[in-house]
């Protein structure tokens, strides 16, 4: 990688792009809505059940000019979801400024394990045990999405719910491989604790990429 490329990446004017695609949001608050997804490479959070482990090594994904990514997004609707990997490993200031300049709403899905950057219309925080969120990101969260893999994750979810604002939407989502076991438990938990809502990976049920 050249020094010029490194400098552009540091400024957020290039990003290690894994993939970009127009689809239906399958999870959380905006389930069922059309959005253009931008998946950036690089993640060291290391969830053992991650379904995009190929995103972890940023070196596998070519540095791409952010302006090119924005121009592609302009062709598809008015909402972009930036995900990963872990997008906050990179500066999000430039890409979100350019997207919003083009009247595109900016959403992010992040573990919160890296410093906050970017200008967001919707900030989805999904904390992971392997690398906890920084304290600074809790106040930014519009949505808290907790992945439920086992019974201990309900307590873990409540610990993080105590740190976000009262306006933050709270979701419990079964980890896909444990959905048959954990979904009934989530249903019971939400009925007993109605501040929470259920999130399902509806795109997988519907076979939507």
Could you describe the 3D structure shown?
- By secondary structure, the chain is α/β, with parallel strands linked by helices.
- The protein is built from seven helices and nine strands; from the N terminus they run αβββαβαββαβαβαβα.
- The protein has one domain: Aldolase class I (TIM Barrel), CATH 3.20.20.
- Strand 6, helix 4 and strand 7 form a beta-alpha-beta unit.
- The chain is globular.
- The two termini are 31 Å apart.
Descriptive keywords:
single chain; 209 residues; alpha/beta; TIM Barrel; nine-stranded mixed sheet; 7 helices; 9 strands; 24% strand; rSAM; rSAM_sf; 4Fe-4S; queuosine biosynthesis; 7-CO-7-deazaguanine_synth-like
Q: What is the N-to-C order of secondary-structure elements (H for helix, E for strand)? A: HEEEHEHEEHEHEHEH
The overall average pLDDT, rounded, is 96
Q: SS-based structural class? A: alpha/beta
Poorly predicted runs of 5 or more residues: none
Shape: globular
What is the radius of gyration computed over CA atoms, rounded to a whole number of angstroms?
Answer: 17 Å
The CATH topology, please?
TIM Barrel
The main β sheet shows up as:
9 strands, mixed
Portion of residues in helices? 25-40%
Percentage beta strand: 15-25%
**DSSP helical segment count:** 7
Number of domains: 1
Between the first and last Cα atoms, what is the distance in angstroms? 31 Å
Any idea what the CATH architecture is? Alpha-Beta Barrel
User: Looking across the biggest beta sheet, what order are the strands in?
Assistant: 3-1-2-4-5-6-7-8-9
The total count of strands amounts to: 9
Query: Which CATH C-level class is it?
Result: Alpha Beta
Q: Say which CATH homologous superfamily is assigned.
A: Aldolase class I
Binding site for [4Fe-4S] cluster: 43, 47, 50
EC number: 4.3.99.3
Family: Belongs to the radical SAM superfamily. 7-carboxy-7-deazaguanine synthase family.
Binding site for S-adenosyl-L-methionine: 49-51, 85, 126-128
């Amino acid at each position: 990688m050249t020094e010029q490329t490194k400098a552009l990446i540091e400024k957020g004017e290039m990003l290690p792009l894994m993939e970009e695609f127009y689809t239906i949001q399958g999870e959380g608050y905006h389930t069922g809505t059309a959005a253009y997804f931008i998946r950036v490479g690089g993640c060291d959070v290391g969830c053992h059940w991650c379904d995009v482990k190929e995103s972890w090594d940023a070196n596998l994904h070519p540095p791409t000019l952010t302006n090119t990514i924005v121009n592609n997004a302009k062709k598809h609707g008015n909402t972009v979801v930036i995900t990963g990997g872990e997008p906050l490993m990179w500066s999000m200031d430039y890409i979100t400024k350019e997207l919003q300049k083009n009247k595109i709403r900016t959403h992010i899905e992040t573990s919160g394990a890296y410093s906050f950057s970017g200008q967001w219309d919707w900030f989805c925080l999904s904390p992971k045990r392997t690398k906890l969120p920084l304290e600074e990101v809790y106040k930014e969260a519009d949505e808290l999405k907790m992945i439920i893999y086992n019974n201990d994750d309900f307590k873990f979810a409540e610990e993080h719910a105590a740190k976000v604002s009262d306006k933050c939407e709270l979701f419990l989502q079964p980890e896909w491989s444990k959905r048959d076991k954990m979904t009934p438990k989530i249903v019971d938990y939400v009925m007993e604790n109605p501040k929470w809502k259920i999130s399902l990976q509806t795109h997988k049920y519907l076979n939507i990429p």
